[in-house]
Amino acid sequence: MIQSWLQKLLFLMFVVLLCFAVAGFRNTETINVKHSVYFGQGLSILEQTRDRFVYKELLTVQTMTILEDEFMAQKLSDANIDYETQNIIISKLNPVFPLNKIRVGQEIIVLWTNTESPQLVAINIPIDSKEYFLLEAENDFEPQKRTKSLVTKIRHVDGIINTNFHEAADEFNIPRNIRYEYLELMSFDISFQQDIRVGTEFAMLFEELYDNKGNLVDYGDIWMATLKLYDDREFTYYRYQNQDGEVDYYARDGKTARKSLLKTPVSNRRVSSGFGLRRHPILGYTRQHKGIDFAAPEGTFIKAAGDGKIIARNYNRNGYGRYIIIQHAGSYSTMYAHMYGFGRNRTDGDRRIRVGRTVKQGDVIGRVGSTGLSTGPHLHYEIRRNNRQINPLTQNFKPSAHLKDVEYTRFLESSLYLDHISKFEDESDAYGFNFSDWLRYRKYIAAIRANHL
Predict the structure, then answer these.
(1) What is the pLDDT of residue 5?
(2) pLDDT of the chain along its 453 residues, tens only?
(3) 3-state SS track over the chain
(4) pTM (2 d.p.)
(5) Rounded CA gap, 392 and 187, in Å?
(6) How far, in Å, CA of 401 to CA of 406, rounded?
(7) Which residue segments constitute the domains of the chain, with CATH numbers given?
(8) CA 294 to CA 271: how far, in whole Å?
(9) How many Å apart are CA 45 and CA 69, to the nearest integer?
(10) Contacting residues for 383 by C-beta, under 8 A, at least 6 apart
């Protein structure tokens, strides 16, 4: 009887110790500041390497740094790695990580068994802030390129535009890739040149990626984006991944942000000439301008306004210069003129941008130029309905997709959660989304579906 109780007690102690050991493998960091919410989980390179073994305390870690006039072979020798193993490591690492280009400050992490006669387990070579090479003894030191586990922190920004969007974004230190993703998302509905006024409000949730030392190394995706205009029009879109793994942005009613055609096929560029009557800058007389001109630096990428087929790719010396026409679904077509070249470059243009080829919305079809009758680099953009030009900036095109049934329910749950975390102000809020909240929001979801809001 006593022996049985002792066995149970020993087993319970083993389970408790095992829980503590497993907990030691994870490093979760939560930081909260006003108007921002950060949460996430990540492992250092060292922790990721140790994670491959059952007990990390069985490893001894040796970290070395390449100094001036030092070489990899010298550092491996300093780590007491035998000559034969050094040759194997160098011969296998050099083709993927040229050692003649190794820089001062390069880290080398060597892991040994923590035993009386230490055995080499693995070597870890950081490449940059995102990736590293792992060479394991059990795999004959074949280099395996791995991605570091970074800490993802979600940042919430909300502000007011007093001059223009970019100055407001600078004030909040919003990175360039995030702001252009935001602009592209909202450009399906508005023109940033014509619809933005002083007092326009904007907000977004986006990912910041940090290494295990707390250094910001990259940015991820926008999770939620809101824009409220001076006339009270408001647009809010949420990032959602469907059950097939496809990612897009949707409004609360389940309609995608993407419309059948783009109003602006170049990213956030100034409208230099609108639709309607104008005095031609070269010909000198007034005539109808049947498109929109976007001023942009030469070489700026031009995107296909929608899915379709290229029906013209030509050059007109006395008019449009280099131009492309794309036929879209129904009666719509679009034209892009004064182009410097087709495709991302000449090779791409010759191979992919040809009459009869299909393109997807957002595909790069050419680069801004000043060919034909033009006074400087710009894109002349036309939308045609039944082969008649219409003003691109005044059109309200239909969403290209609409979530339904189970996908819509899943999306609602996701969007309501993003609404909730966008309101976090402090640490207590960040930990406040519990099971009772979730049940309450599920009832709210049912009410929304019932009322088709």
Answers:
(1) 55
(2) 555 555 555 555 544 444 433 333 223 232 222 233 343 333 344 444 444 443 344 677 888 888 877 888 888 888 888 999 989 998 998 899 888 878 888 888 888 888 888 888 888 888 887 788 898 988 899 999 888 777 888 888 888 888 888 888 888 889 988 988 898 888 887 777 667 778 888 999 998 888 777 888 888 899 999 999 888 889 999 998 888 888 899 999 899 888 878 878 887 667 766 666 555 555 454 556 778 888 888 888 999 988 999 999 999 877 788 999 999 987 899 999 999 989 888 777 777 889 999 999 889 999 999 888 787 888 898 989 888 888 877 777 777 778 888 888 888 888 888 887 777 554 434 433 444 444 444 444 445 444 433
(3) CHHHHHHHHHHHHHHHHHHHHHHCCCEECCEEECCEEECCEEECHHHHHHCCCCCHHHEEEEEEECCCCCCHHHHHHHCCCCHHHHHHHHHHHCCCCCHHHCCCCCEEEEEEECCCCCCEEEEEEECCCCEEEEEEHHHCCCCEEEECECEEEEEEEEEEECCCHHHHHHHCCCCHHHHHHHHHHHCCCCCCCCCCCCCEEEEEEEEEEECCCCCEEEEEEEEEEEEECCCCCEEEEEEEECCCCCEEEECCCCEECCECCCCCCCCCCEEEECCEEEECCCCCCEEEECCEEEECCCCCEEECCCCEEEEEEEEECCCCEEEEEEECCCCEEEEEEEEEEECCCHHHHHHHCCCCCEECCCCEEEEEECCCCCCCCEEEEEEEECCEEECHHHCCCCECCECCHHHHHHHHHHHHHHHHHCCCCCHHHHCCCCHHHHHHHHHHHHHHHHHCC
(4) 0.61
(5) 12
(6) 15
(7) 44-147 (3.10.450.350), 270-394 (2.70.70.10)
(8) 5
(9) 26
(10) 261, 291, 305, 332, 333, 334, 389, 390, 391, 392, 395
Q: Does the CA dihedral 150-214-79-127 come out positive or negative?
A: positive
> What would the two tokens of residue 296 be?
């942009």
Q: Which of 386, 380, 384, 346 is nearest to 366 (CA)?
A: 346
Enter the tokens of residue 251: 């409004």
Paired residues of 381 in beta bridges:
292, 336
Token pair listed for 172? 């909040």
Q: Which of 413, 398, 400 is nearest to 449 (CA)?
A: 413
